[in-house]
Amino acid sequence: MIIAIDGPAASGKGTLARRLAAHYGLPHLDTGLLYRAVGARCLKEGRLGDEGASVAAALSLDVSALDPDALRTAELGEAASVVAARPGVRAALLDLQRRFAAQAGGAVLDGRDIGTVICPDAPAKLFVTARPEVRAERRFRELAGRSETIAYDAVLADILKRDERDSGRSSAPLLKADDAVLLDTSDLGIEAAFAAALAIVEARRA
């Protein structure tokens, strides 16, 4: 069973993906972490603007070495959006993601192009979204909890900029797959959103 979850930044897709993976006993991959890791390496080397360096970083990525806590900063979110727009980086990470999805028993993957590019034949697809202002508030609180000092207006501006970049890029843009079910979490708490997501997956399984 492959569950593909797509959506914009701070929509709640990661939280739902982790909850669904735990519920079904499936491995989970937050594919955004792959791009954050590539961005982190490029920043460390001072080569974020170098497409060749970002492709090399993608090709040498070790999924088992990813540190989610260290990668979830505002700076790396922006860097991830930059490198993710590069076709060479996406191509380098394509096979890695598909191998993860092909594990015995299945997997849960969340990102921007899971249902459209990585796992187009996944039986269960969700497109999770929320109003930009709601997503900015969520990200603002998340960053504040990590002691990152950033103004709400700056977070909202970043969210809108990433939405435009993710949806407008030429390679694997953020799109809702035709057969994905839309789940708007703007007015839902975590438990209500999970219940709705679970119902969608169960309907697809049936």
Q: What descriptive keywords fit this protein?
A:
57% helix, 5 strands, 206 residues, 11% strand, alpha/beta
Secondary-structure blueprint:
Elements: E1 2-6, H1 13-24, E2 28-30, H2 31-44, H3 51-59, H4 68-71, H5 74-84, H6 87-101, E3 107-111, H7 114-118, E4 124-129, H8 132-145, H9 152-168, E5 181-184, H10 190-205
Parallel strand pairs: 1-3, 1-4, 2-3, 4-5
Helix pairs in contact: 1-10, 2-3, 2-5, 3-6, 5-9, 8-9
3D architecture notes:
With 206 residues, the protein is of the alpha/beta class. 57% of the residues lie in helices and 11% in strands. The chain contains 10 helices and 5 strands. It has helices at residues 13-24, 31-44, 51-59, 68-71, 74-84, 87-101, 114-118, 132-145, 152-168, 190-205, and strands at residues 2-6, 28-30, 107-111, 124-129, 181-184. Strands 2-3-1-4-5 form a 5-stranded parallel sheet, sandwiched between helices. It starts with a strand and ends with a helix.
**Spans where pLDDT lies below 50 across 5 or more residues:** none
User: Biggest β-sheet: count, sense, barrel?
Assistant: 5 strands, parallel
Overall mean pLDDT stands at 94
Report the portion of residues in β strands: 5-15%
Q: Number of DSSP helices? A: 10
Question: Strand order across the biggest sheet?
Answer: 2-3-1-4-5
User: What is the SS-derived class?
Assistant: alpha/beta
Work out the number of β strands. 5
- How much helix is in the residues? 55-70%
What is the straight-line distance between the termini?
Answer: 12 Å
Shape: globular
Give the topology string: H per helix, E per strand. EHEHHHHHEHEHHEH
Structural Rg: 16 Å
